[in-house]
Specification:
By secondary structure, the protein is mainly alpha-helical. It is 59% helix and 5% strand. The longest helix has 24 residues.
């Protein structure tokens, strides 16, 4: 894992870093994973080694959620 992490260190984030990057709580990252919105680029390797998340994947989840919210707002306004 260390070699892969060193190759892609700029795009791979721990859960805490992913939460800070996405400007959400760490529990939100766990919820996105639980709901199937986000997958770890590198799953947890056991005790003490967290899953790593890809920045573009986080961007995509945020974009999809923003689009869904805009659609809800438009539907609400039209009603």
């Amino acid at each position: 894992m260390s070699r892969l992490y060193s190759l892609y260190a700029k795009n791979l984030l721990t859960p805490a870093q992913a939460a800070a990057y996405a400007e959400v709580a760490e529990s939100t990252i766990r919820q996105w994973v639980h709901r199937g919105l986000l997958q770890a680029a590198l799953p947890s390797q056991g005790r003490g080694i967290p899953a790593l998340y890809n920045k573009p994947d986080l961007d995509e989840v945020k974009r999809k959620l923003a689009e869904a919210e805009a659609e809800r707002q438009a539907a609400w306004s039209a009603a």
